[in-house]
Write a structure and sequence with these properties.
The protein is an alpha+beta fold and 357 residues long. It folds into three domains: 2-116, Beta-Lactamase; 121-192; 201-356, Heat Shock Protein 90, CATH 3.30.565. 43% of the residues lie in helices and 26% in strands. The strands form three sheets. Strands 7, 9, 10, 11, 12 and 13 form a six-stranded mixed sheet that branches. It has a five-stranded antiparallel sheet with strand order 2-1-5-4-3. Helix 7 (205-219) packs parallel to helix 8. The longest helix has 47 residues, at 118-164. The two termini are 29 Å apart. 24% of the residues are buried.
Length: 357
Amino acid sequence: MMKTASSHASQSILDNLHSTVMVIDQQLCVQSLNPSGEMLFHISEARACGQHINKLVINEHEFYDRLERSLASNHPYSVFDSELLTHTGKIIEVDYMVSPLDQLAEQSSLLLEFIPKNRNNRIALEQELLNQQEASRSLLRGLAHEIKNPLGGLRGAAQLLQRELETDENREFTRIIIREADRLQGLVDRMLGPRTIPNKTPLNIHKVLEHVRQLVAAENETITIEADYDPSLPDINADESMLIQAVLNVTRNAVAAVSHNDGHIRFKTRTVRNQAIGNHTWALAARIDITDNGEGIPEDIKQKIFLPMITGRADGTGLGLSIAQSLINEHKGLIECSSKPGETTFTIILPLENGHD
């Protein structure tokens, strides 16, 4: 019984590690692969087990030789800044550690741990996005307070003046003042983002995506919007109207980017494990990719794209993405962006269950 409890505890630890952990036998065949490894190598543990390591890591003879030498010598070793070609054709940049395992059985085995080089950079970038969003919202709250007070006085004075004026021609000037004061009030409110507590209920995220997809497709008949959904994605506890607004803002940004091209947008959903958002880790999260084939985001605004009033379009307000980020933050999630000419992807990460530090 104690052995079973210990085995379950060990498996739980492996399943929740950020790094990839793989065990291979003396023939260099995979014996086990944790969930992070499934994501790194894009293969399930069931399919990987029994396969020779050269079916996952392709044409890396020095890598195989090192494994065989470790088995023969029973010595651990580490390799830093390595580039390995995987079976998907993708090159991964990793540090990896190899440790021989002492077992009761006659045949020895190796424990391999792979740590992607971009992981620490990604965590730092996510934390920077979260800090940036909180700093901008704090600044805007202070700015809004300073603007709203004189704006209210200006509007009230214009209303009083309007009562004293005798002709419609003169009253038109005060009406302009009142309308512009109201417009600025609305602008400040939009800059502040959501001010209501999310009304969260169990929700199928594909219902949200399909609603937005059909709405945008009806407005833009020349743009192709493709859907690639993971049917196994569980429901999320979320505010439907907030998520619709966030996805709609991101999608309309994509529409604007492809409006002058042979426009193509793709919605893609997947489940991801052990998802770090800043310094917090979620055991399970939904990943929503919204990809367009536009010209890409200009380099000078790429790092500031989620700040209010930042836009690459002459007719843009610079509020859509900032508001979308705020709405997703309300759900403990985050929006990231990667962009190059011909392919821009906004990735929405939404936790599906309780996280851990």
